[in-house]
Amino acid sequence: MIVRALCLAAVLVVALAVPAGAHNVTAGADLRIAQTIAGAEVTVVIKGTSRVPGPLRIGVIAYQPVSGLPVGLEVRSVEDGRALTGTAQAAADPQYVQVRVERTGPHELKLSAGGEVAVVPFRVLVERGSMGDFLIYGGLFLAALLLVGGLLTGATARPGRAMALAAGAAAGVTVAAMVIVFEPQLPPPAPDGAAPAAATPAAGGRPYAQARVETVPARPGAGEEFTLRLDLIDGSTGRPVDDLTVHHEALAHVVVTSEDGRYFRHVHPLRTAPGRLEVRLRADRAGRYLAHAELEREDSGGQLVAAGFEIGSEAGSEIGGEAGSEVDSEVGSEVGDEVGGETSRADVAEAGGAVVPRLQPAAPVAGRPTTIELDVPAGVRPWLGMTGHLLVRSQDGAFLGHVHEMGTPGSRLRFTFSFPAPGRYLAWVQYATGDRIVTAPFTVDVTAAAEAGR
Known about the structure:
The chain is mostly beta strands. The protein has four domains: 2-21 and 129-185; 31-124, Immunoglobulin-like (Sandwich); 204-333, Immunoglobulin-like (Sandwich); 343-454, Immunoglobulin-like (Sandwich), CATH 2.60.40.1930. The chain is built from four helices and 24 strands. Helix 1 (2-15) runs antiparallel to helix 2, helix 1 (2-15) packs parallel to helix 3 (159-182) and helix 2 packs antiparallel against helix 3. The chain is globular and about 100 Å long. Residues 8-24 and 316-352 have low confidence and may be disordered. The chain crosses the membrane at residues 134-155, 162-182. This is Secreted protein.
């Protein structure tokens, strides 16, 4: 009876296993989330923990020179409200702060620095033993017991019972062997503390978020600090979208550029409330600016939100007529021909003005892959999970593309990108060195396929 139960359990483990989700978080893995806070670009690292109750280590990596930037930490369990506090110093090679967590499941990490506060949701996950492990060790243990019993029974001149016990031992070994062979092909069990799976997943996944983008104040002036705010709403329920998944080590990537491309910021807004993302910025020149936000909901695809806003010549001024608090979602406008080396404030280092990358082919053709190479100094380190980033914007701002370095070894970055249409494109390559993020701007003129064939 026991052997039959083990065999039945082995079959059920193989037959009833469910596929792994696309965004399952592995227990014990580190969680890295980029944040633009207190004017600094940092990545918060929450180290994985192997047991609960147990230690949870948190560090803040700085990707630019910072002098004693303290970041207040508060870890709170969503289920029981228990909170623990600490302070981390942002640094290129930070010291990790250790707090003790008492349970798995949903938690919130509140970050405080420079008068700004962000609340990052995360889950404490711990691996749990699988049914496969139970069957393997249970089958082997049962086989050992039956084998010993068979030997003892055979020694007392009862061959029939000895054969039955030996058969049971063979069955136990067979069950263990079956699980050993088939278990690697099955998804691992959900870790302790994982979010419960939806009983009836929505057909086609969750809908894209509807975004309302605004600046605070409504009419920022040149040189004035302002907040760019994104409010995300689920159009099917009217509720705030608070299920963004971490992609490329951030909840959202926001690229802000001036129409002429002289101003460029690649930032990572703070979650200040459910469904609300905010980042503080400052633009030194009046004019029209474009914002593109890359984000992704759980059980949904990647989404690009685009909007435009105005910077006045002085605080509270208007440009081009009446302006409201909500920014204009249309981004088309004529711009100048040249792109200079001006990027953002001191937290993003310039690459010494415009650069000249190597293109293959030298005259890119719309719709065909182009290889872009750029020499970089030694000591480039990963940022946002990648060695390098290429961001490409059409001249009118209607298109934004974002690809990553292909992993080429040595002191160069190499990207492959297909420009969607002929015309002039503004491009920026970004990479991180030991103490800063370098932004290298350039332009690319793309021809039509018909012109390239002449």
